[in-house]
């Protein structure tokens, strides 16, 4: 049998119609609990679920209770592993629950983590406001720091995780995952391995595969490209089995898994993931090129415009297969101008979030990144002029018409 591409498998992988009266699609298993065929079977299922013994070869985890597993989650998780080449996946009720579960599982009081700046606002809040209450310290680094600067930052701290978001939101700054891997290996000891965790929401699962670039775990807000229709909140974690057992176990006891309805919606979304994202990236290129030549725009942040002599270009070539569908730009004229642009849009929706079929626009300095420390904001280029666009699947000429007429009102 030929080895099939993920997009060819998204309609069927992991599901057998004979399980469900021949239904071509996996139904919604809207049930809290599952009937065992016998008491012995129930005992065996629990032994596996609670890690009392290893699975024997070919043994599948049995269905017990929907906080532990449910077909809509399990099949979805199997399908998600195909894009990233992961052993296992666990789906959560939000991106934040996926991220906070990973941080809680792999950090202990007295530990520290290195994290890339800027990270998503919720992640930043969890690292800087919640983890310190458990004596865990976050140490931020920017993408202009080299290996030795990271080693200096780590000095005297018990670093257990390196947490990276690349490309960074909203400026598309790239972090070098090879460098993060090197630093993690230098800081690791046999008793205390240092893991690299990558938030791949911006580019994944199609255009960047961090597990193949040295990461130990990948996290997603599945609310974004994976869901892709602005109609659900979900998250995912992927990695090798040894680490995923720990993530899944904490999920069981925090009880923050996604429900069957969300699982079903995400399976439906995955069928069109590649066509959606491909169209979005094509549209983004057209929009970015239009913005680059516009007299009211002073700078465009788009990965497809990186110059070959830019050190970021080297990282782009190594880590990404596409420039993506997120485009930010500076409007000449500060906050007033940016707001006139945003209020003038007719087709783009003025909303946070990203990765959906419809195009969205927002103002990072006063919206998604308003909580970021002012000095950090200046350092990473989040100015009053900056507008972030998430490009959707509309006809590109309509998107350009909308941007053009809104810029006329600036
Ligand atoms: C949205 C987002 C999150 C948080 O995900 P939720 O699904 O909203 O909880 C985390 N990281 C990134 C990069 C995001 O864009």
TrEMBL record:
Keywords: Pyridoxal phosphate. GO terms for cellular component: cytoplasm. Its cofactor is pyridoxal 5'-phosphate. It holds the Pfam family Cys_Met_Meta_PP. GO terms for biological process: methionine biosynthetic process; transsulfuration. InterPro entries: Cys/Met-Metab_PyrdxlP-dep_enz, Cys_met_metab_PP, PyrdxlP-dep_Trfase, PyrdxlP-dep_Trfase_major, PyrdxlP-dep_Trfase_small. One of its GO terms (molecular function) is carbon-sulfur lyase activity. The modification N6-(pyridoxal phosphate)lysine is found at residue 224. Belongs to the trans-sulfuration enzymes family. PANTHER family: METHIONINE GAMMA-LYASE, TRANS-SULFURATION ENZYME FAMILY MEMBER. NCBIfam families: PRK07049.1 (NF005455). This is Cystathionine gamma-synthase family protein. It comes from Algoriphagus kandeliae.
């Amino acid at each position: 049998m030929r080895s099939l591409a993920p997009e060819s498998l998204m309609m069927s992988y992991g599901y057998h119609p004979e399980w469900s009266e021949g239904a071509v699609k996996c139904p919604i298993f809207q049930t809290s609990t599952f009937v065992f065929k016998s008491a012995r079977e129930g005992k065996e299922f629990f032994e596996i679920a609670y890690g009392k013994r290893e699975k024997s070869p070919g043994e599948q985890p049995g269905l017990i209770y929907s906080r532990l597993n449910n077909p809509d989650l399990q099949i979805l998780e199997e399908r998600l592993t195909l894009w990233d080449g992961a052993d296992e996946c666990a789906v959560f009720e939000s991106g934040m629950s996926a991220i906070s579960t990973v941080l809680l599982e792999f950090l202990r009081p007295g530990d520290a983590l290195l994290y890339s700046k800027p990270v998503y606002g919720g992640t930043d809040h969890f690292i800087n406001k919640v983890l310190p209450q458990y004596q865990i310290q976050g140490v931020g680094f920017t993408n202009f720091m080299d290996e030795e600067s990271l080693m200096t930052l780590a000095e005297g701290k018990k670093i257990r995780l390196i947490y990276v978001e690349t490309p960074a939101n909203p400026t598309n700054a790239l972090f070098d995952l090879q460098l993060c891997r090197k630093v993690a290996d230098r800081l690791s000891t046999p008793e205390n391995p240092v893991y690299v965790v990558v938030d791949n929401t911006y580019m994944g699962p199609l255009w960047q595969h961090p597990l193949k670039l040295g990461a130990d775990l990948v996290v997603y807000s599945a609310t974004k490209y994976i869901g892709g229709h602005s109609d659900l909140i979900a998250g995912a974690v992927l990695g090798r089995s040894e680490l995923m057992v720990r993530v899944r176990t904490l999920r069981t006891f925090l009880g923050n898994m996604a429900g069957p309805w969300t699982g079903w919606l995400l399976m439906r979304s995955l069928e069109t993931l590649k066509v959606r994202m491909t169209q979005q990236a094509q549209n983004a290129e057209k929009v970015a090129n239009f913005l680059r030549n516009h007299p009211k725009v002073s700078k465009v942040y788009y990965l497809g415009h990186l110059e070959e002599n830019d050190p970021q270009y080297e990282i782009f070539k190594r880590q990404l297969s596409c420039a993506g569908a997120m485009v930010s730009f500076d409007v000449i004229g500060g906050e007033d101008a940016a707001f006139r642009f945003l209020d003038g849009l007719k087709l783009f929706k003025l909303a946070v979030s990203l990765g959906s079929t419809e195009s969205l626009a927002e103002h990072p300095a006063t919206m998604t990144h308003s909580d970021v420390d002012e000095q950090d904001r200046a350092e990473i280029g989040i100015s009053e002029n900056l507008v972030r666009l998430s490009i959707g699947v509309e006809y590109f000429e309509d998107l350009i018409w909308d941007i053009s007429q809104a810029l006329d009102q600036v």
